[in-house]
From TrEMBL:
Lipid bilayer topology: Multi-pass membrane protein
Gene Ontology CC: plasma membrane
Main location (coarse class): membrane
GO MF terms, alphabetically ordered: purine nucleobase transmembrane transporter activity
Alphabetical UniProt keywords: Cell membrane, Membrane, Transmembrane, Transmembrane helix, Transport
Protein name per its UniProtKB record: Permease
Membrane-spanning ranges: 12-32, 38-60, 98-118, 130-154, 166-185, 192-211, 231-254, 323-342, 348-365, 377-401, 416-432
UniProt KW Ribonucleoprotein keyword: no
Keyword Coiled coil carried by entry: no
Subcellular location(s) of the protein: Cell membrane
Family under the similarity heading: Belongs to the nucleobase:cation symporter-2 (NCS2) (TC 2.A.40) family. Azg-like subfamily.
């Protein structure tokens, strides 16, 4: 294990990697329930999607750990599942079987791009100021997700967003946030994981003491349930290959590609997971893993798989090698049978970890030259649009386009590589389609 993952070289050990893997899993595990909830609205059986979600998460995260050797979990992506349900199935009127076929074909496109190293070239074409901005933007995005999960930040028709009134659940979240912060400041090993577990225990009485005016945060739905393989190989290969489905395939390709690329770049910059050339570590293998995850998702019955930004929780807990991803992958597998147990970890328990991860991921902004405005403005737009649009893809698209536009009109077109011009073309197509 030491020689394969090179633990000493990365200044880590088995205990740290295991705790990091558990932390990443706890921050990511919500997808096991959330993904089926969204895809069920497309007419797919909840239990079948749950099984598919676990299979994609397990095999893809395991491949990320053993093949790419990066501490990043892979699972069906949020945003991609919403596009699958609300845009492809409900919006365009295609069947979910055809939509699964589109997921499969987009995965094949990913694999082709990965084999010919095109995706790696795309990563290297991203200007370094944008890389730093993407890392910070993802950190802000994770923080926003954490506050939203805790219902600290809520919708407000007058001011767009607002702060929720103080209530028992919010107090529990704030207590967990303070506790986790103290553990991190005191450099307690596994502090993030301890924060999640203690906040879970603290939240348990809420469903009992205040059940009259709020839903119980923790419910018991049984101990085990049998896996449902009814969606295995239910995709429509033929009809999903028609010309009318090309926009769906392209949307999956573009969104998943830039979600995964920006996640890899952001996590690598924030956690110094870089090779000797300053590039994200094992990037080609990581992107190939992402491609396999999407292809597998179409076969087993889920929306596309992608690298998870919540992996930052485990990375901040000390995870630096593929062993972190292996541990996280193994923790997914039992939930083929034990999915009801996830109801014991409420969103307010993982929310403090997500909020605090943002504090670590904004560090790269110090590497941006904020006095060189043709670099600073595109970096700023990319950074703030990721959380403001609730989309990593939108943030990176407008970062690319504004970078190119400013360099062009200020006579610095030589700073725009050919690869970046190609990216810009696809970015514009993505906006139009």
């Amino acid at each position: 294990m030491e020689s394969y993952f090179r633990l000493k070289h990365h200044n880590t050990n088995v205990k740290t990697e295991v705790l990091a893997g558990i932390s990443s899993f706890l921050a990511t595990a919500y997808i096991i329930v959330v993904n089926p909830t969204i895809l069920a609205q497309a007419g797919m059986p909840f239990s079948g999607v749950l099984t598919a979600t676990v299979l994609v998460s397990f095999f893809s995260s395991l491949m990320m750990g053993l093949y790419a050797r990066n501490p990043i979990l892979v699972a069906p992506g949020m945003g991609l599942n919403a596009f699958f349900t609300y845009s492809a199935v409900l919006g365009m009127g295609v069947t979910w079987q055809v939509a699964l076929g589109a997921v499969f074909w987009s995965g094949i496109v990913f694999l082709i791009l990965s084999v010919f190293n095109v995706r790696t070239l795309i990563v290297r074409a991203i200007p370094r100021p944008l890389r730093f901005a993407i890392a910070a933007g993802i950190g802000l995005f994770i923080t926003l997700i954490g506050f939203a999960n805790a219902k600290f930040i809520v919708a407000n028709p007058s001011t767009i967003i607002g702060v929720s009134p103080i209530n028992p659940a919010l107090l529990t979240f704030l207590g967990g946030l303070l506790l986790t912060s103290v553990l991190i400041v005191r450099n307690v090993k596994g502090g993030i994981l301890l924060g999640i577990l203690i906040t879970t225990l603290a939240s348990y009485p809420l469903g009992r003491w205040w059940a009259t005016d709020m839903e119980p945060l923790i419910t018991w739905q049984g101990f085990a349930s049998a896996p449902d393989f009814s969606l295995l190989l239910q995709l429509d290969f033929v009809n999903s290959f028609k010309l009318s489905i090309v926009p769906v395939i392209f949307a999956f390709v573009f969104t998943d590609m830039f979600d995964s690329i920006s996640t890899f770049v952001g996590l690598a910059e924030a956690a110094d997971l870089l090779d000797e050339h300053g590039e994200p570590r094992h990037v080609q293998r990581s992107l190939t893993t992402d491609a396999v995850a999407t292809t597998l998702a179409g076969l087993v019955g889920s929306s596309p798989g992608t690298a998870y930004i919540e992996s930052a929780v485990g990375i901040e807990a000390g995870g630096r090698t593929g062993l972190t991803a292996v541990v996280g992958a193994l923790l997914f597998l039992p939930f083929l049978f034990l999915a009801p147990l996830l109801s014991m970890i409420p969103s307010i328990a993982t929310a403090p970890a997500l909020v605090l991860v943002g504090a670590f991921m904004v560090r790269p902004v110090t590497k941006i030259n904020w006095f060189k405005m043709d670099d600073a403005i595109p970096a700023f737009l990319s950074m703030v649009l990721i959380p403001f649009t609730y989309s990593i893809t939108q943030g990176i698209i407008w970062g690319f386009l504004s970078w190119t536009a400013l360099k062009l009109v200020t006579g610095k077109s030589k700073e725009v590589s050919i690869a970046l011009w190609v990216i810009d073309i696809f970015a514009i197509l993505a906006l139009l389609l």
